[in-house]
Amino acid sequence: MTHIRASITGIQGYVPDYILTNAELETMVATNDEWIVSRTGIKERHILKGEGLGSSHMGAEAVKGLLAKTNTLPSEIDLLICATTTPDFVFPCTANLICDMVGIKNVGSFDIQAACSGFVYALTLGSQFIETGKYKKIVIVGADKMSAIVDYTDRKTCILFGDGAGAVLLEPDTEGNGIIDSIIKSDGSGYPYLHQKGGGSRYPPTHETVDQRLHHVYQDGSQVFKFAVTNMADISAEIMVKNGLSGDDVAWLVPHQANRRIIEATANRMGVGMNKVMVNIQKYGNTTSATIPLCLWDYESQLKKGDNLVLAAFGGGFTWGSIYLKWAYGE
Ligand code: UT7
What we know:
Blueprint: E1 5-14, E2 18-21, H1 22-26, H2 33-40, E3 44-47, H3 55-69, E4 79-83, H4 94-102, E5 108-112, H5 118-131, E6 138-145, H6 155-158, E7 163-173, E8 178-186, E9 194-196, H7 207-211, E10 217-219, H8 221-242, E11 252-255, H9 260-270, H10 281-284, H11 291-299, E12 308-315, E13 319-326
Parallel strand pairs: 4-5, 4-6, 11-12
Antiparallel strand pairs: 1-7, 2-3, 6-7, 8-13, 9-10, 12-13
């Protein structure tokens, strides 16, 4: 029996028009372009403006573009999974809203919340439905409006994040391309270092939680940095060893874009030169669930059928993961 793998057969990104530069941030908090660029690699990020627009707006724009680009009708989609940490509402989930906005009806849709590892988690999950033969066309979305939860009075976090979305189409592949392996991990004891303190069931919204600014991203940056460097590099090395890959075999590392220094450490550990690493942190910042699909979108024209890609992410939870796949299209 031919083994069915799940291949990415299309990719589309979306970033909102407004660009928040380091120069504008200098007018908001005590920071400067030199510090931000040297410590993170970020020069600018896109911000979603507009009353009543949430992550679903960006996710739906990405999905609409994906369907048009791949000549796929909404009625052909069997399932949609959205990775997001900034859902439009506590409920219903953002995936339900995206389906409605793009005309995907009467199929299952749900969100995955794994912070910055969300897209790797969602792709891992979605691929299972293809591999078992249950579904033929699945859309995986990563969408985050981080500006909704960023505290623009906190210089330690407000310089890091941006808004954006990306979507991929997953289809069965029997030619040997597609997702070959994935590893996902988590450690909830890491939550104190990176989380949003208020607004959930532990500390529901009150006047006090708002006054104490608990509805924003809290991060102990240097602690998260240590865990991120170790775990993203380790899990990338682990998937290479497991699949007998050397640095030379890897065509592209597709890392979560949280900090250029974390990306460089991961590439170094894998024995992959920076010329084979997708980096777009300079123009989008950290878009959480959207970083990896936005990388694939930006680099799509350089990808060739059969290229070995390693996706790697680390984020709040802590969560981390890696995926080894063979790209399925491109000359
Ligand atoms: O995607 C989810 C996972 N998240 C991550 O992977 C993020 C991991 N962490 C990081 O990327 C880095 O820790 C940061 C970029 C957040 C911070 O860089 P750092 O090199 O760890 O700096 P730090 O937090 O140790 O701060 C160094 C200094 C401090 O000043 P003092 O105490 O040494 O006087 C900060 O107050 O830099 C200061 N600082 C700033 N200065 C100018 C912190 N933020 C800023 C700023 N502008 N925006």
